[in-house]
Every structure is written in C-alpha cells, then in structure tokens.
C-alpha cells in the first residue's frame, strides 16, 4: 500500500472516530500527523509542524475571545432583544430577525456554533411560546449563521481564503460570501413557506419586556450600559479595521478584547475560558495533518487521481457530495480544511473555474449543518424547550437528508457548470 493511500485512509479514520466516538477531531488529527509523519513519511517535528496554521490560530482565539466577552456582559442578549422590539412584535418577522442576527454575528467573526449557541435558545423559546414550528426556527438560525459565515472577516471565510492564498490560487472573497448568503437565503425562504411562515402574518406578539421568551430578565438587562456600548463599538471597530484598514482580524480582536477586559475585569474574567478552544484545536489539528499530507505529496497524488476521472465536471460534483455527506456527520470546518486542499491540484489543471468550485464546495459543506449529527443541528435540538425531542430529531434528520441530496447538485449546476472564476 502506498504512503499516500495510507495517509488518506488515516484521514478517513480520523473523521470516522471523531463522528462515532465523540473525540475532538483536531486532537485525533494531531496524533495522526505525528504517526503518519514519523512512521510513514519520515518527517521530523519541524516537518510535521510546517503546516500548523499560526495565522488562523490567532484569528480563532481573537474573535471568539471578543465574542465571549460580548456574551458575558450581555451585549449579544441586548442585540437580540433590540431586534425583536424593532419589528414591533410581528411574529412572522421573528424567524427572519433570528436569521439576520446569526448571520451578522458570523459575518463579523463569531464561530458558527457560537452564534447558534447564543441565538438558538432565545429563538426556540420564542417559537414554542408563539406557535412557530421549531424546525422552521431552528433552520432559520442555522442557515442565518451559514449565510454570514463566509464574509471576508469570518472564520470560514478566513480559512478558505487563507488556503487559496497559500496555494496561489485565484479567489474572490466577495463572490464566496455572496454565494453562501444567496444559497442560505433561498433555502431559508423555502423553509419559511413550507413550514407555516406565511400563516404567522396573522399573529402578533405583545410589545412588553415581560413577554420576552426565556427566564425573566435581570434588572437593567435591556439597558445599553457602558460595557455593552464599548463592546458594540469594539465590534464596529473590528469591522472597519479589517475591511477598511486591512489589519489582521485576530490581532485586532485580541487587542479590543484585552482593552475591554482591562476596564471591566469582573464581566470579562470568564471570557478566556469561554474561547472556542475545541474549535481552535479542531482547526489547528486538521490543518496540521493536511500540512503533513502536503509535505509527503499526498495532496498532489489525490488531486491527480480526482482529475484522472476524465470528466472534470463529474469530479467536481463528486467533491461537492463528499463535502456535504461528511459534513452532515462531522465538522464543516474540519471537512473544508481537509477537502479544499485535496481539490487544489485538480483546480490547478484549469478546466474548472476556481471561484465557482470553491463556492460550491463551501456551500455544500456548510448548508447541511442543520443535521442533528452536526454541531449546529445538535445545538438547535438541545435548545428546543417543551417539545417532543424524538419527533424533532427525526424532523431535523429528514430535513438534513434532503439538503444533502439536493444542495450539492444545485450548487454544482449553478456555480461550477457555468465555469465561474
């Protein structure tokens, strides 16, 4: 058996073990990088760590640190409550409010599971109280998170664009963002119609603070106090610093988080512990293993194998389905970190548009996160109060299966076949 095939089989084993045994995929990937690098490829420690993504490590830590502070001091709760008041209690608009909020959070740097974890409990409580389908509300939250998930300063966007930059492939940050946003917006619209969203227009929620979902709010919870105002300003500064001044997102976020912590240490003390360390471990581990694959030539070998199918469009469709199926049962971040580098040699052949292919892969690997086996789907399932969880689980599973079956082919047809990029 060739070393390249062994390294691919080990990668498959990493995904399988992480899915079935609930072991962090990044930790498994670090162990796999050590085993394959030392025993199969003959690499030393420097060779194994050559692929460690130091830049992405800083981005992940920085933005999740800042959002942990925002959650600890009530800024994210204030944003959600303010948005609900903004629509004047119109029930039909509330699912779209949740879509926009989660999309905005991920677009400016929140990790998708973190955004879903923030919004889903409030959204699902509101759904139960006002007779909104939990599946509708849960899908709106997840697709909102994925809709904003590929902005130039987001975690997903940073990962994908960083990989393209390192591989010297042409990319289009705005096209990637808009493709994901359009796909998730379209899916959300279909779900809204199919699961009773139009009927909600006849209902209206009372515009009182004590009518808000969930437990009673603490005194002053709706007030924009100094820590929350400073946090909102920091989020705005992050957007301007990255998009306008072209500063590093991770270093900027860490700096802003430290400034807030220094002024208000009481509300920020637990933020470091709330950094998305499992996600950081996952990303760094998977990309370090991918670095080992690159060092030993597996990436080129696998890409040439996909390209050797002889029908580039068929190979592209196959990659989209691989991304969707694996992501439905594991981490979208992990599969993108592994799958896109595997597609690089195939894309370098020039027969498939890079921009369209990367966008199709990104959409295929993330829209399936409503599956109850994925992190976001599991968060939605766990956040739903007073519902038949077995029934809700089956609904999410069926819906996730439909998305896996339909979206990769649609993304391939719209983004790959025309040859964008």
From TrEMBL:
Keywords: Membrane, Transmembrane, Transmembrane helix
Coiled coil start-end: none
Keyword Kinase set for record: no
Transmembrane regions: 47-70, 82-101, 107-128, 135-155, 175-198, 232-265, 271-292, 313-340, 346-368, 396-420
Residue ranges of domain Dicarboxylate carrier MatC N-terminal in the record: 1-149
Pfam families referenced in this protein's UniProt entry, alphabetically: MatC_N
Protein's UniProt name: SLC13 family permease
Species classification: Bacteria, Bacillati, Actinomycetota, Actinomycetes, Kitasatosporales
């Amino acid at each position: 058996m060739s070393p390249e095939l062994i390294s691919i089989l080990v990668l498959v084993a990493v995904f399988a073990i992480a899915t079935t045994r609930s072991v962090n995929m990044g930790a498994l990937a670090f162990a796999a990088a050590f085993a394959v690098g030392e025993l199969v490829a003959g690499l030393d420690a420097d060779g194994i760590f050559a692929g460690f993504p130091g830049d992405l490590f800083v981005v992940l830590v920085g933005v999740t640190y800042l959002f942990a502070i925002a959650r600890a001091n009530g800024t994210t709760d204030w944003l959600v409550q303010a948005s609900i008041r903004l629509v004047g209690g119109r029930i039909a608009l509330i699912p779209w409010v949740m879509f926009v909020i989660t999309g905005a959070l991920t677009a400016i740097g929140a990790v998708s599971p973190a955004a879903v974890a923030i919004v889903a409990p409030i959204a699902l409580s509101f759904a139960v109280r006002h007779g909104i389908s939990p599946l509708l509300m849960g899908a709106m939250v997840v697709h909102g998170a994925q809709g904003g998930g590929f902005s130039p300063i987001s975690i997903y966007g940073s990962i994908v664009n960083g990989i393209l930059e390192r591989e010297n492939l042409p990319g289009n940050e705005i096209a990637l963002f808009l493709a994901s946003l359009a796909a998730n917006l379209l899916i959300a619209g279909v779900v809204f119609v199919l699961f009773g969203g139009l009927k909600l227009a006849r209902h209206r929620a009372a515009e009182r603070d004590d009518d808000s979902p969930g437990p009673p709010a603490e005194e002053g919870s709706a007030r924009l106090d100094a820590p929350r105002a400073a946090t909102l300003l920091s989020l705005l500064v992050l957007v301007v610093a990255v998009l306008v001044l072209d500063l590093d997102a991770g270093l900027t976020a860490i700096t802003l988080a430290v400034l807030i912590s220094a002024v208000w240490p009481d509300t920020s003390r637990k933020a470091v512990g709330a950094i998305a360390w499992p996600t950081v471990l996952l990303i760094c581990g998977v990309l370090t293993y991918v670095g080992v694959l690159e060092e030993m030539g597996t990436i080129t070998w696998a890409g040439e194998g996909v390209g050797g199918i002889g029908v580039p469009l068929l190979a592209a469709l196959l990659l989209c389905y691989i991304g969707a199926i694996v992501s439905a049962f594991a981490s979208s971040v992990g599969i993108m970190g592994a799958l896109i580098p595997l597609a690089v040699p195939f894309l370098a052949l020039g027969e498939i548009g890079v921009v369209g292919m990367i966008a199709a892969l990104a959409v295929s690997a993330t829209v399936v996160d409503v599956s109850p086996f994925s992190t976001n789907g599991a968060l939605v399932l766990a956040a739903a109060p007073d519902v038949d969880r077995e029934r809700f689980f089956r609904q999410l599973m069926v819906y996730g299966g439909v998305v896996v079956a339909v979206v990769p082919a649609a993304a391939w047809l719209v983004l790959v076949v025309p040859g964008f990029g």
